[in-house]
Amino acid sequence: MVHSLCVHLFPYPQEDREVPQPGPNEVQVAMQRVGICGSDVHFKKHGGIGEYMVKKPMILGHESSGTVSAVGPGVQNLKVGDRVAIEPGVPCRKCKFCKNGRYNLCPDCFFLSCPPYDGSLEDTIVMLLTSATNHVSLDEGALMEPLSVAIHACRRAELSLGDKVLVLGAGPIGLVTLLTAKAMGASEVAITDIQQERLDVAKKLGASSCFKIDPSLNPEEMAEKMHAILGWRSDITIECSGAESSFQTGIYATEPGGVFQMIGHGNPIKSFPQFVANTREIDIRGTQRYANTYPTALSMIANKLVDVVPLITHRYPLEKSVEAFNTAETFADNAIKVMIHCDDSLTA
């Protein structure tokens, strides 16, 4: 039987389910790694993100890797035993967005652990997959998902060689955005956070400058402090925290004609310095997950352009998933990325 972790009321119930069998063009995957994303924590803590509301027990998890345990009719490029990284979204492939290559905007997209769909935090799942990732580790395979978020954001911002970049927020997405911006040719990457421990990690990962947010300063003053120290405003600012004050600081910190790229969510309605954004002609751009990024993420990891494994600070077996979520939610012991082992490689 499959053991599934559901989110409904704390504590999370674990339940047994029938092992799912693959249909045409589907593969059955024995799950081995599932990283805890900030959205998973948000669903647990708040019961939703924006319009995505949890209305029934739901399995969490979408940063996933595993091995193929069975294949359905029509599967040609995968075999039992292949290692796979799971792109969690399956679009309709028929709407105008899918046909234009922007399948992340598909209104009928199935996405793991996004209501009403279950996620991957269980022993076995069935998915539509097309290629193996045997040349990267299981940890790296699971982290291809947050890396894809960063790749998509940097592409949306049109980051190019020599750009000066400011990343706001040094959580898992902020740190992987730092790595991606550097790999894509940014000449300088500064980063902010409210926790010094995370900035210390960012420095080890190659941040050119790190700034701890000073709560005694308003957003404009914080931006001016960074400008005075750096001697430049950012060509591209990438906001990863979702905090309103961070959003405001980012607008003030961006060069005229620059790009303010959003990733973080937080409060769905925010105030911001509209006059500054308008008169500086700052382009404010959104992101919705990612599209056409997994091949790039795989190539970047396989060719050692980025090293994502140091982001993993804590590991738990599936049986201790409640403890894992508590660690991720509270940032206990300076947690950054919490990884759950769904197999028996990490015993309870």
From TrEMBL:
This chain belongs to which protein, by name? Sorbitol dehydrogenase
Q: Name one GO biological process term.
A: sorbitol catabolic process
Q: Which InterPro entries match?
A: ADH-like_C, ADH-like_N, ADH_Zn_CS, GroES-like_sf, NAD(P)-bd_dom_sf, SDH-like
A Pfam family assignment: ADH_N
| Keyword Lipoprotein on entry | no
Identify a single GO molecular function assigned to this protein: L-iditol 2-dehydrogenase (NAD+) activity
Q: Keyword annotations for this protein?
A: Metal-binding, NAD, Oxidoreductase, Zinc
Q: Which cofactor does it need?
A: Zn(2+)
| Domain annotation Alcohol dehydrogenase-like N-terminal: ranges | 23-127
What PROSITE patterns does this protein's entry cite?
Answer: ADH_ZINC
The answer on whether this UniProt entry bears the keyword Zinc reads yes
Task: Report the family membership.
Answer: Belongs to the zinc-containing alcohol dehydrogenase family.
Q: Which parts of the sequence belong to the Alcohol dehydrogenase-like C-terminal domain?
A: 172-302
